[in-house]
Amino acid sequence: MQETGSNWSHAWKERLRQSNHRTRLQKTGLTSEEFWDHFSTWQKLHTYTNYPGRIMDRILQHVDPKDTVVDIGAGGGALTVPLARVARHVVAVEPSPGQVDRLMHEVSREGLDNVTVVAKRWEDVDPAALGPVDVITAAYCFQMEDIRTALDRMICAASKHVFLVHFVDHDLAKPLARIIDDFQLGPDYHHLNNVLYEMGYHAGIEIIKRDFDIPLAFQLEVLGYSHGLTPEQQDRLAESLLAAGRIRRQNGAPVLSRWYKDALVWLETDCCQD
């Protein structure tokens, strides 16, 4: 989806501003870092969602044991930990103290000693201070107003590859839109790809679908925090999913069958550092 003559950086910013996530932050009065600090069920969620799954397999095909990798928006280490098992050194850029604690717990549990944390937003990092970087990964961390500058700094910092992981679609988007007033998803991979296109880059893209089952009660708990669903809205959602045949029982408890689509966007880079 490449449309010339459009200002996709502006479209990105507007879509970000109108997104349900930004609305949620405004209603709660939380910063993005505080939001992730309090999202205590995030690590548990990944045990059900098969993330990063095949995304990680694709990335690791291009990571060598001698490489230094920068993982932007490292979160609790979904990409950082498997990267650190292969690469010489991984720099995890993560501004949320809560997420850094979760990340370092995983790093310690894995017995890894080659991970360095930079507790900042990417926008506030001096790429030159990172030293030589071979590969940059950035996954679901694009709450960036000036996306063009952020991407440019990634591309110029990496001497070999940049891998971006961003949203395509998921099975609860339409059901949530029927329940939440003015529901608006943030910018998706089309926006990301078109920003890159306007910058003069032709990125590779692979759409990867994840199918998974998740306990219904836990999924509703996550949505209560992430999307602000009230108990009444959670009941309405559960009823609609049950009517659609999406819920089954496993060991006596209701389980929701779900799917999620991620886009892996990648670029081979030329080192832009002086």
Question: Can you tell me about this structure?
Answer:
This protein is an alpha/beta fold. It has a single domain (8-173, 180-211, 260-268), classed as Vaccinia Virus protein VP39 (Rossmann fold, 3-Layer(aba) Sandwich). Helices cover 42% and strands 24% of the residues. The chain has twelve helices and eight strands. It has helices at residues 8-18, 20-28, 32-37, 42-49, 54-60, 80-86, 97-110, 147-157, 173-179, 189-198, 216-226, 231-243; strands at 68-72, 89-93, 115-118, 133-139, 158-170, 204-215, 247-250, 253-268. Strands 1, 2, 3, 4, 5, 6, 7 and 8 form an eight-stranded mixed β-sheet that branches. α1 (8-18) runs antiparallel to α10. It is globular, with a radius of gyration of 19 Å. It starts with 7 loop residues before the first helix and ends in a 6-residue tail after the last strand.
The tally of helices reads: 12
- Number of domain units: 1
- Average of pLDDT: 95
Number-wise, the strands total 8
CATH class: Alpha Beta
> Into which percentage range does the β-strand content fall?
15-25%
> Oligomeric form of this entry?
single chain
CATH architecture: 3-Layer(aba) Sandwich
Structural class by SSE content: alpha/beta
The low-confidence runs, each spanning 5 or more residues with pLDDT under 50, are 1-5
Can you identify the CATH superfamily? Vaccinia Virus protein VP39
